Amino acid sequence: MNSQWEAVIGLEIHTQLATKSKIFSGAATAYGAEPNTQACAVDLGLPGVLPVLNKDAVRKAVTFGLAIDAEIAPQSVFARKNYFYPDLPKGYQISQFELPIVGNGHLDIEVDGETKRIGITRAHLEEDAGKSLHEDFHGLTGIDLNRAGTPLLEIVSEPDMRSAKEAVAYMRKLHELVRYLEICDGNMQEGSFRCDANVSVRPKGQKEFGTRAEIKNINSFKFVEKAINHEIERQIDLIEGGGRVVQETRLYDANKDETRSMRSKEEANDYRYFPDPDLLPVLIEQSLKDEIRATLPELPEAKKQRFLEQYALDLESATTLTSSRELADFYESVASLSGGAAKLAANWLTGDVLGALNKASLEISDSPVSAERLAGLLKRIADNTISGKTAKQVFDKLWNGSASADEIIEQDGLVQITDTGAIEAIVDKVIAANPVPVEQYRAGKDKALMALVGQVMKETQGKASPGEVNKMLIEKLKV
Amino acid sequence: MSLTANDVKKIAHLARLGIAEQDVEHYANDLSGVLELMTQMGQLNTDGVAPMAHPLDQTQRLREDSVTESNQRNHFQAIAPQTEAGLYLVPKVID
Q: Which of A31, A36, A62 best probes binding to B when mutated, by most B CB atoms within 10 angstroms?
């Protein structure tokens, strides 16, 4: 970005709360059902129905509020947000306006090694709308109301971010948090975690904010960064070219990598909110907060600190391993089952295991190698039964089969040779057979030693410890 | 505060209410009267009075999170003007 300009970014993130039933009705929220089979009379807004609030949606909202150190409103009120669109059958969305359930909180992000605190203005409960399908209906629009009434928690940040990178870091952190708390499945493809970004620019040093544009429809981490960077550039170009930014909603088009103005929604922002007379004020008792606080899981930041201390991991490993609750749990199982090979477990998980999972597009929960079986392998590395090199072969077989590490080592005869006499004989043989590298090494070319180590490893079919072989060679080649 | 004829037309449009041209002035007068009353009420001293979110002095009852509704699509779609492939069909809403 041009260094005379500074970007100001705030995000509104809609998280779909992982409840079984809708926020105001007993219809199911399962994804992917046949159109309109999960839309009941309340969701359709038929006359005479009464919304009744889902207890679990309230609990999940309170859980989130406690996790970001926010004030939980003792009394919270639902309001009608009025607008007309066919996927909103009532003509209003039940949302919260003046008294949201979650007040001021914060989330710390790390960008380029520095920690920055991002303020969270509020988080409120609301119902989702249905889906409009604009294709293929002889010029008509098809409406599926299965999603109508699905509980959402809209999390609104302060305009505290100054770059697309910070915005992505915040979004990732929030994504990690809601999944840790198990209040949202975080599935971005299915729309469980959606982001709108408010972006403006101002000359560096200016206090007042510039006019902002809201970018909608950015539902992947990659696109958020691209869309925001694109919008920042667009606004700077516009202003430098003598124009001015207008307040509007823009849509990000991932195919063209550009934002474009949405069909100007006439008077779209005149929502005429008023308290919903169908719903009474929601009272959050201290006892409920205490109960939820007592069951809060260890949060990512606390877990990372504990991993650093308890397992003496480096920051990078600790960050990776705590990036999801499932991965962190898996790691702790392996570390404990392997008899305390904590660092070895961290290396294997962040390296070979995550690498293999990535390649196969699998999540840790679908890993073909369970924590028990991985721990079985690590034990044999730790007690020198097999070398690190052999361990990789064993891992391949663990990944592709169902045998345990011990069975594989036994069947394939992979036990590391610990008989020094046997290795010594092979070392002598290799020295005798390779006069060239021997000479080179003696002439001061340290690299030549690696060729000899390689030969010995080959002779022993990888069953010798490379460290041992190395030591023995150096000893024997001393002039 | 008094409303103009244009204000009335705008509000009617937002609420999708059809108002006959000859009635606009009438509504403008009536609604201005309501706003006048609000302005008077706004002058009262309400220090120490908590805003009322609902006229009933009760709090919201919560329901357990369980699925209690079954699929009644055929039932609901029987009264819809037009449906296809399980969808409700409406006039096209994007240009």
A: A36
A-to-B residue pairs, Cβ atoms closer than 8 angstroms: 131
Written as six digits, the tokens of B65 are 């999170």
Closest B-chain CA to A269: B14
Helix axes A286-295, A55-67, angle to 10 degrees: 70
Domains of chain A from N-terminus onward: 5-288 (no CATH), 298-411 (no CATH), 420-477 (1.10.10.410)
In this predicted model, what pLDDT tens digit does every residue of B31-78 receive, in sequence order?
999 999 999 999 999 999 888 888 888 999 999 999 999 999 999 999
Q: Which of A148-152, A177-181, A344-348, A361-365 has the lowest mean pLDDT?
A: A361-365
- Segment A96-115, tens digit of pLDDT: 999 999 999 999 998 988 99
Q: To probe the interface with B, which of A140, A266, A283, A285 has the most B CB atoms within 10 Å?
A: A140
Q: Is A323 helix (H, G, I), strand (E, B) or coil?
A: coil
Task: Compute the distance between CA of residue B62 and CA of residue A315 in angstroms, rounded to an integer.
Answer: 44
Closest CA to B24 of B2, B42, B7, B47: B7
| Domain definitions of chain B by residue range | 5-42
Question: Does pLDDT of A451 surpass 90?
Answer: no
Q: What is the pTM of this model?
A: 0.82
Q: How far apart, in whole angstroms, are the C-alpha atoms of residue A443 and residue A144?
A: 79
Q: Does domain B5-42 have CATH number 1.10.20?
A: yes
CA A181 to CA A175: how far, in whole Å?
10
Instruction: List the single residue in A52, A77, A141 with the smallest CB-CB distance to B61.
Output: A52
- The answer to whether the CB atoms of A279 and B67 lie below 8 A apart is no
ipTM of the complex: 0.91
